[in-house]
Amino acid sequence: MSATGLGRSLPAEPGLGRIGPLLAILAGAALALLGPRLFGDPLSSDPDAWRLTAYFGALWLCAVAVPRLRSSAPLAYAFATLALPYSVWILLLGWTATLPGVLGTADSLGRTASAAVAELVLVLVMAAGYSWRCPSPAPALRLLRLPSLRVVLVAGLGSVSFLAIGFLLPATLLGREGVPLLAFAPPNIFAYLVANAASAMAQEVQFRGVLLAELERVHPWVTAVVLQAAVFGVAHVAVQYAGPAASFIPIVTVLGLIWGWLTRWTDSLWPAIVIHIVADLFITIAILGGLYGL
Amino acid sequence: MIALGRRRVRGDRRRGGPVALLAAAAVTAGSLLAPVVQASGTTAWWRSGPRLAATAIAATSATTTLVLARTGTYWVTPGTGRVRRVPLGSPAAAIAVTGAGAGVAALADGEVQMVALGGLGTTLATLSTPVRALAAIGSAADPIVVVATAGGLVVLRPGRVAARVEAGAATAVVAPPAPGLPWWALVGGRLYGSRTGTAWARARHVPALPLATRVLAELGDGTLLAAEPSGLVLASAGHGLTPDLQVLPAGGLAGVPGSTGIAAVGPTSAYLATLGFAALLTPDDGYDWYRAAPSQLPADIAAIASVGPVFAGANPQGEVVAAGPRRLYLHRLQSLPAPPIYTGGTAMLEGAGTVATTVAAILVGLCGLAIVGRRRGRRRLGRPV
C-alpha cells in the first residue's frame, strides 16, 4: 500500500469530470456482472458476487499501485466494502450448510443469522480501515459515539412513521398480504431478528457510512446522497436481478435517499440503522414472500 | 489545415468521453432491466375459463364439477371448458359432487336433491332450516351427504330418514379428501370430527372459532385449515388449531380482505381465495404463503376449488378453479421440470468465459479510470500555451 494508504480523492471539480470515476467503475462492474449472462446457463450456479469482489478488489489494488489511478483508490475500496462482505456472506451460507451445529444452530435460519453477523464484522473492519487511512473520516462512521437525544428521537419516530406509511399504502402495491405466523413463531423470530439486524447494520455502514462518506469527499452532499441511493437501488437489482424482487427497486432507492439524508442531517448512522432494521423485519415478515411468489 | 484538423479531432474526443460514459451507464441500466422485462413475460399461471359469475364451486376428484352462479347451477368441465345448466326448480344454496357426473344441490327452499349430468336425481330430504354448506362422498347410488344447517349438522342417505347428529349453528363441513382421513365440521364455532360421516365428536384442544367462520379445508396429509372473518387462518400443526397466517389490511381505510374459500391441491398445498388479495398459495401445510400470480387474477375471488385427481400420487393432476367477478379462472396442476444436468466440458467453458469476462471488466474499469484521470490531470495543469 502506498504512503497515502487508500489514496486521497481529488478536490471537487466542475462538470461531469467529478462523476467520471464513478461511471467508469460502474461500467466495468456492469460488464463483470452481466457479461457471463450472455453465454452462461441462467439455471446454473452463478458466482456473480465473487466476480464483483474480484473486480473491485483488483481495481483497488491497481489504483493503489499506479500513481495515475491513486485518486480513485478510495472509491474502489468503498465498492469493495460492498462486494466482499456480501460474497463472504454467501460463502458462509453454503459452507455452514455442511457443518451441523455450527454456532449452536443447525437450521437454515441459524446459518443465515450466523453468516449475517460474520458479514457485519467484516464490514465494520473494512469501515474502520477506511476511517483510519482517510484523512477526514465522516462523523457518521463514529459508531461508538453515544447517540444524542435527537438521534434517538429521529430513530424512534422514523421507525413508527415507516410502519404507518407501510400500512397506509395499498397492500397490492407493496405485496404485503399477510404474515405467515407459523414461519415467524419463536424460535424462528429470534433468528430473523439477528439476521435482519446484522444485515441492516452492515448495509448502513456500507452505503450510508463508507460509500456516502467517500462520495461526499468529491461531490456536494445532495449529489452524494442521490448517488449512494442510486447505487443502493442498483445493488438490490444486482444481487436479485433475475427475480420479481426488482419490482421494489424504486422503493429501495427512495429509502436510500431518506436514510442518506437522515445520516447527513443527524451526523449519525444510528437513525438509519434502527429504521433499516424495522424496515427489513417488516419487509421480511409481511412483504417478501408475497413479492417473490413461487 | 492540418493543425486545425487535429484540434477538431481532439475537441471531439473531449466531448466524446462523457458521452461514452453516459452511453455505458444507459447500457448498464438497460442490461439490468432486461431480465426483469423478460421475467414479466413468462407463461401465464392462470388462464381464462367459462364466463360464469360463480359464488361456489364444488371440489371433486372427478374431472367435472358443479358451479353455483348468479344465473343458476351448472356442470363445468374445466379441461374442455364445457358448461351445462342443471335444470333445478329453484336457486341452489349449496352444492357438492360425489363422483363423476353425480352431485348434490341444496335448494333455497330446503330441498336437498341429487343431480346428474343427464338431469335431476332423487330428492334426499327437505330441511326446515337454511342450508349453509354441504359435503358428500360415495357413489351416486349410495352417497353420504352431510349438511351444515342453521339448526345443526344433518346426515342424509338415500332411502333413509334425515338424521341430525349435532345441534347448533353449523357453518362448514368438509368430506375427507383421501381414504382414511376424517370428516370435519364447524358447529357453533366448535370443531367436530367424524371417521364415518355419521357419528360425530367434538375435537379436543381446539379453541372456539368465531361463529361466522365458514371456510374450512382438509389437505391430503390430514392438515386442517380454517379461515376466520378477521383474516386469521389457522392450521392443525401439532395439537389443535394454531394461528398460521394473518391476512393484513388492504391499506388506507380498507379493512382486512375476507377469505372465501380454501382449495386443497395435494398432500401439503392449498390455495386461499380472498376478496381483495386474489389467491394466496401455501406449498407446505401453511408454513409459507405466497401470492398466486395476482396480476393474472382479479382481486376478488368469490370461490375456489380443486377439480381432478389432485391427491393421486406425487404428481398432482387436475385444475384449480377460481371464481372471478365475471368468469372462472383455471390453473392446470403439473409436476415440476427436472433439474438441468451439466457436463464437465460445458461447465469448464462457462467458467473460463466467466473468468475472461471478469478480467475484461477489470481492464475496462482501469481504462475508464485512466481516461478520466488524464482529463482531470489536464484540467489541473491548465491548457498548454
Task: Please outline what is shown here.
The complex is a heterodimer of chains A (294) and B (385). Chain A is mainly alpha-helical and 294 residues long. Helix content of chain A is 67%, strand content 1%.
List the helices and strands and how they pair.
The complex is a heterodimer of chains A (294) and B (385).
Chain A: H1 20-34, H2 48-65, H3 73-96, H4 108-133, H5 149-168, H6 171-174, E1 178-180, H7 188-216, H8 221-240, H9 249-266, H10 270-292
Chain B: H1 2-40, E1 47-48, E2 54-57, E3 65-69, E4 72-77, E5 82-85, E6 92-99, E7 102-107, E8 111-116, E9 119-126, E10 131-138, E11 143-149, E12 152-156, E13 163-167, E14 170-174, E15 183-187, E16 190-194, E17 201-202, E18 215-218, E19 224-227, E20 232-235, E21 242-247, E22 259-264, E23 270-274, E24 279-282, E25 290-291, E26 303-307, E27 319-323, E28 328-332, H2 344-381
Antiparallel strand pairs in B: 1-28, 2-3, 3-4, 4-5, 6-7, 7-8, 8-9, 10-11, 11-12, 12-13, 14-15, 15-16, 16-17, 18-19, 19-20, 20-21, 22-23, 23-24, 24-25, 26-27, 27-28
> How far is the first residue's CA from the last residue's CA of chain A?
48 Å
Query: What integer value in Å does the Rg of chain B equal?
Result: 31 Å
Number of E-type strands of chain A:
1
The DSSP helix count of chain A reads: 10
Largest interface: A-B, 69 and 73 residues
Helix content of chain A: 55-70%
What is the first-to-last residue Cα distance of chain B? 19 Å
What is the string of SSEs of chain A from the N terminus onward?
HHHHHHEHHHH
